[in-house]
Amino acid sequence: xxxxxxxxxxxxxxxxxxxxxxxxxxxxxxxxxxxxxxxxxxxxxxxxxxxxxxxxxxxxxxxxxxxxxxxxxxxxxxxxxxxxxxxxxxxxxxxxxxxxxxxxxxxxxxxxxxxxxxxxxxxxxxxxxxxxxxxxxxxxxxxxxxxxxxxxxxxxxxxxxxxxxxxxxxxxxxxxxxxxxxxxxxxxxxxxxxxxxxxxxxxxxxxxxxxxxxxxxxxxxxxxxxxxxxxxxxxxxxxxxxxxxxxxxxxxxxxxxxxxxxxxx
Length: 265
Known about the structure:
The chain is α/β, with parallel strands linked by helices. Helix content is 39%, strand content 16%.
């Protein structure tokens, strides 16, 4: 990776793996990496991922450790190695502890948390052989609060990712493999959660107005943050948490409009 004349970064010659690549943050990350010159292995359970130049698609259930190991090995051989990993795939259901099926708990933990371990375990030897690499784990601000629109399984999985990434960063640092976490906040088009109320242009605008920066987070915002964490600009960052949340956590989710209303004399 090298800095270009306009202050951006070139990922020419680098191979990146992105999970959850079919939509949202994953699709935005694939597009951003391709635009920066990387060859991208776009992995998703959905086999209907659009194909573009500089991109190879791989059908993958990230909660299956055997499938992860097999697919990562295949990518390393077919694309010549792996330098970057964006572990992004996520899922959720909406239920209370009392009504949540055990299968839902196991699936959400498997996709959101265990997958990061399976992927890191698989890519680390490949990155080590290439002199290092960067791993970006996509978490959520729910790790610091709760999963309001999902449940305890989502909250636990995202909180667990922070501890996982911190520990992985410690272990893999000597191999020049950096591990960092992005925590997206309120997003315009977050993952689909059963029974969750669909977002409308009006609700998006209203939620955006409640945030310090005045708008909700877009997938491209998270993708650009991921590129930064993969780039030489973050060479001394590992085990870090980067909040991409339009300032939501600065006030613990409090509506900034009400904050100023309470101060009007």
